[in-house]
User: Fold these one by one.
Assistant:
Number 1:
Amino acid sequence: MPRLARKTLPGGRVHINAVGVRRTPIYRVELDARAFLRYADVAFERFDVRCDAYCLMPDHFHFLLDGTRDALSRALHHVNFRYARWFNDRYELEGHVFGDRFYERVIRDDEHYFEVMRYVVLNPVKDGLCRHPREWRWSSYRAAAGIGPRAPFLSLDWQSEMSAASFRAHVEEGIGVALPDPF
């Protein structure tokens, strides 16, 4: 039975994530993560979607995006569809790469926005993959903190509201602390 169409994808600022089918890895090697980020770069440029934060985890990803409802939907479909096709071709697989559609949560206000941003970049620390987000190369933390290169699609326009130093301090306040779920 086909699934029902998504009723609406809210426009504006949203937190997006998607998980591998049965939580299996969606990035096996560095080349996979690089390919995924290239698809994101193309899609966000093509559909005029701004990405303020991201994190690739072994079995899922997070994006903090801003765009119209239609642009967000088209961009995410492009990324997930193209990457799944590439991944299946590369590993000689068939079927779904992602377990379900992407999940979206509307960002309520600026405070919520910065809490979600912290949550996104602390994901690898929370999951025990590193001790500090600066050690995780597959997120926007290093660029936002002013200590690493910026992915072509990553917008740092939000830094007019919070400097790189303030961002580092905000994120570090959450290390080792049981933060409330920002959703």
Note: Residues 1-8 have pLDDT under 50 and may be disordered.
Number 2:
Amino acid sequence: MSHGSGQKGLRGSGVIGALTVVLAACAVTPLGATESGIAQARAKTPPGADLFDRQCASCHGKRGEGLTNAPAIIGPGALPKYPRDDTSSSNPTFSTNAQVQQDTTRVPGQSKRGAFVTAQDLYDYVSTRMPLPKSVAGTLKPEEYWAIVNYMLIAHGVPAPSEGISDANAKTINIQR
């Protein structure tokens, strides 16, 4: 055996080892909220956690990671200031033709919603447009929407005041991290 073939074998195993490390890191990094973010949000706002599970998780996922046509609403890449200007969900794997057809009526470059800068912006959006279908949007009580917003933002890593986020302070709470 020559030195050349031994080095080639070592390089090949190094690539495989590096690939294994990268894949393992991806496998343990779930989309959406972190375990600590979820635990903190559940502890600080149990009603928000329950409401999120009942009203939001079936479309957006237990971790807020986004499922099928629903965008990610918690975690990295979620709650961007402006919506992405594309026709896919937050997870491109889940893109569908129905979603593409739905977005063809939007003027290119026109925002699908207003900017998400403060907790008030998020509340204004979810309290008028969620849950879906449209026939039930806006049907929760204001305190239920605030509980969901509190849960989402705490799980997302936004520092919330000890008294929680409400209409009294929501305009002062920046959600862009």
Note: Helices lie at 3-27, 35-44, 46-55, 57-60, 97-103, 119-129, 142-156.
Number 3:
Amino acid sequence: MGYLVVGCRVLLGTVFAVALVGKIWGNGAWRAFVASLGELVRVPPRLRPFVGVAIALGEAAVLGLLAVPGAVPAGLGLAAVLLAGFTVGIAAAVRRGVREPCRCFGSGSAPLSRAHVVRNGLLTTVAAAGAAAAIGWPGTGEPAGLLVAALVGVTVAAVLIRLDDIVALFTPSTRAS
């Protein structure tokens, strides 16, 4: 179970780090993220900055908990809760026909779609499985196995972070040639 925990911890730590940095890196990215909350979850304009800060603080809390060996189960559990909320919010927005670009990682331009719901559903499952496996795990394992688990976590995170680009590769272009 230790390798599963390490893989989940690295995968989710990478995803949450890129998401947080993408939202706060530069005033433009932060403003775009906060503005997107209006369509995404129907937040009134005056409350959007507070909701944005709450989301950023939640992501930072996940990172902090994942960095402390004894707090890994809590970090994975918090990640599962946040990701479940993101999944429900995105699914509702897609159902309503919202075409707002996904600002999950900052400056995305792809409109919300079922791919975002699937991605967040997968991340929720990873977080929940990791949290369950982390309970009682002593934090040990063979160094080579831990390294492989971490490399798998980073690789899967990279694929999920760039999912919009990957989906675009397999989606017919609507531009005229």
Note: DSSP finds seven helices and no strands in the chain.
Number 4:
Amino acid sequence: MLVLICGLPATGKSTIARKLAKKINAVILRTDKIRKEIFPSPTYTEEEKALVYKITFLIAKYLLNAKVNVIIDGTFYKRDLRKEIYKIGEQTKTKLFIIECVAPEEIIKARMYRRRLRKSLSDANFEVYKKIKKQFEPIHREHLVIDTRKPIKENMEEIYRFLAYS
């Protein structure tokens, strides 16, 4: 199984990914973590981004070919990046599920404030959020939209139903 958890910064993607990984016994490939492993002080150039995604895709293919469930956690705000995930699903003959996380801006701001108080892998601030929001290309494939202001238990139940019936 391949699950793409995407959406704007601070929409709760990583929280959902951690909960889901336990349930489906999956490896999480988090683009923020991969970026920090490669670039301890990232500059977010196009070259850096391309390398992060290339490595993410290579690891995903390897794991899926080994029959390991994979969750990919990242914004994936560009259609071309999502198309690469679709190709990986096809190439590895793996069922792909897409989950888009959303939340109201006041919750995003509060989450970003809390991130600053603790060590977070994400460097995204509200300016980055606004920039990515303007550039986010709609998802046209079947997918589940999760409003992460709802209780996590409720969201996870919705996700389990989606995975079971898709």
Note: The first strand starts at residue 2 and ends at 7.
